[in-house]
Amino acid sequence: MNVLVIGSGGREHALAWKLKQSPLADRVFVAPGNAGTAQDAENVPISEKDFAGLIRFAKANRIGLTVVGPEAPLAEGIVDIFRAEKLRIFGPTKAAAELEASKVFCKQLLRTADVPTADFQIFSDPASARRYLMEKEDMPLVVKADGLAAGKGVIVCDNRDQALQAIRLIAEEKVFGSAGDRLVIEERLHGEEASVLAITDGKTIVTLQPAQDHKPAYDGDTGPNTGGMGAYSPAPVVTEEALHWIEANILVPTVHAMRKAGRPFTGVLYAGLMMTPLGPRVLEFNVRFGDPECQPLMMRLKSDLLEILNLAVDGRLDQLESLEWDLRPAVCVVMASEGYPGSYQKGFPIRGLEEAARLPDVKVFHAGTAMKDGQIITAGGRVLGVTALGENIARAKYQAYAAVKCIRWQGAWCRKDIADKAIRRLTQQKV
């Protein structure tokens, strides 16, 4: 079977790399891909927005399965369009993708399905949002743009003044564009964040091992939100007991509620959770593999990803045997361009990739890279996802950062504390 992966980031590199390992896979294409996917698969110079071009390519190259990486094509209905052309594609329909594309829809569905989440209010204009804040006691809040904002449309506020400033940025200055046409203001939950992803065909749910992302830019979870500065799996904050509870009380009711709403969900259901003292609470849902969670998950998954996705597309996930995982933890450290998540320069040559690749149990997934004159250069804010396995989480962290030290370009930086929360938690459990 020929496979097409749509997208150009670290998640797409990890998916293409994993799909290529399947005995069911013949050729694996990535559109448009990056410098890393060019090494592990075959790049196709077609934009993820060019649906007509992607359909022509899929038909001309007898693509047996298309896998959509990013959220934007899903929100714009690529799955519906491919299906109308009788092409097999993995991902949710446009109606189902609204679970991520609209935070307002997501929160309303959670309320309807009685899925635990933070209390919230919805606003369609900044004046009523400000009035609400002035009448409410001063307390920590979260202000969210309704629409897609590349993982950055959430502003966590310690007090009313910060929340008022967030309203101005999102709803008046439109820093996230039309995503800020509506606002969600919700109570700020406290605890540790975790990501639980599941693959579903709308009837059967196959839950993946828990992971933990690091959204804030700087060490100690400080600084502005990013698309994610690193991740690890498994996440010890989600115990086996908690994982079963999340399946029963969050994932299953959400899939049922989506079917009841006439939006049956197939694809990846990604629950972004806060593990509060009162139990897990949904912060948000995404409708695709996380980036960077996908990278450590693909490093650890031993089962055949192509077989899993084929069964999901055909509505036969109930026939899947239990997933097999590498018992070793994996840590992914994102190396970013100077200035990210703000403005940054592109085009710097990257050195040391071969040296990093020679380290055992290391895979460098490319995100914002390109080829120029035979050299790999930076082409994005998040440039690389340096991922490593280790006998324990501390060894996996050590190995990932050993690989990071090999790699250089002008202005390269990363967080230094990816996986420290897990190491602390496991150390406390031993005491």
Features:
alpha+beta; five-stranded antiparallel sheet; 34% helix; globular
- Residue share in helices? 25-40%
Strands of the widest sheet, in order across it, are 3-2-1-4-5
- Note the main sheet: 5 strands, parallel
N-end to C-end Cα span:
51 Å
Taken as a percent bin, the fraction of beta residues is 25-35%
| Overall outline | globular
**Poorly predicted ranges:** none
User: How many β-strand runs?
Assistant: 22
How much is the radius of gyration in Å? Answer: 21 Å
Mean pLDDT: 96
Number of helical regions = 15
Structural class: alpha+beta
Structural account:
The protein has 431 residues and is α+β, with helices and mostly antiparallel strands. Helix content is 34%, strand content 26%. The chain has a 5-stranded parallel β-sheet, sandwiched between helices. Helix 7 packs across helix 10 and helix 8 runs antiparallel to helix 9. The longest helix has 21 residues. The relative contact order is 0.13.
Topology:
Elements: E1 2-7, H1 10-20, E2 28-32, H2 37-40, E3 42-43, H3 51-60, E4 63-68, H4 71-75, H5 78-84, E5 89-90, H6 94-101, H7 103-113, E6 120-123, H8 126-135, E7 141-145, E8 154-157, H9 160-172, E9 183-187, E10 192-200, E11 205-207, E12 212-213, E13 216-218, E14 222-225, E15 230-233, H10 240-260, E16 267-276, E17 279-286, H11 294-300, H12 305-313, E18 330-336, H13 353-357, E19 362-366, E20 369-372, E21 375-378, E22 382-389, H14 393-406, H15 420-430
Parallel strand pairs: 1-2, 1-4, 2-3, 4-5
Antiparallel strand pairs: 6-9, 7-8, 7-9, 10-11, 10-16, 12-15, 13-14, 15-18, 16-17, 18-22, 19-22, 20-21
